[in-house]
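Page 47, continued from p. 46.
Same chain as before, 351 aa.
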Amino acid sequence: MADFSHPLLDYRQGPYACSETRASVVYLSEALTDFLVAASLAGLTPVIVSRHDAELTFALRYYLSLHGGARLVRDASREFINPATGARGASAPAVLDPATDLREAGAFSATPPPLTGYPAPEVLTASVALSAHFAPHDDSRVGIAADALAHGLVDSTVLAWGAHEPAALTWDVDGFTNFARAHMPDGIRAVLQGGGGAFQAVSIVRRTRIGIEETVLAQAPFAQLGTSQDELAQRAASVLESITETLSMPLVGSLTITPGWRQNYAASAPDFSAVPAAFLIGPRAVRALDANLSALQATHQISEAGRKKLPSLIAGVGRNGTPPWQEALEIAEAFGAEAIARAYGLDREER
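Result:
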């Protein structure tokens, strides 16, 4: 850890490896991808330090989180600012170190004010997490989960992909499948784009004990600011339902809503709280949960979708004035924590 060096390492402060950029938009470049991996492998926390009005792409934010990294900004005073908390200090440890009592130091705001210099949110953004299972056959093709999601969100296929930004490869499901297959049994992660940049996603493909799993984390503009929760839940449920028409074995999916921007960049401001809009429960989990569907449908907006013999369940939450998180909790409690853990294999110890 003491000997860590990298072309993008500007300085190291304690356990934090800092790379500072003055770019207005920070992308997940090949070099930055390598920096995040190298710093985390060295036992350090990678930190991206940007100017106060900079924006980070969806892919970079995901990879930064994946490698346990952090994001700081510096304003005209050259102080470090943690946009997640509003904490200010003279160094990265001063605003990131969990041992630092920021409240006593007077540098912490429980409700930090938005940082200046970035545009106000323009739209409501959908953040989607979707996993699907594929049989380990020679003719199985991955990438169709991402395509289905792009169709549902922006009415477009995925158009480009790559290991980092810019996603320079023209999208081709067969080519993507061959790339994933060539890296088996190791998994792959890829950046995906579609809809003129409106659809931004990261796809993770990996082998499991019983087949192949494709997980897609995506973001796209979804609705106008001020759209009612009823309408959001209805449209979100429709998006997830459309996916079940393409995928024979979806596993689980969720769609949450946050204020955002049309280009899916995140400004240097405290994160907005996500509000759930809809969930998808795949056929395998539905069968394992063995829930009383009629009883659930009597109190919640839950419907069957996909194949008739092996249906998925789609739940839109927050309709009819019910707080979305409250309804999501009620549905989870109706299934039962033990049943959910059993359905998704969370009750099994890792071997």
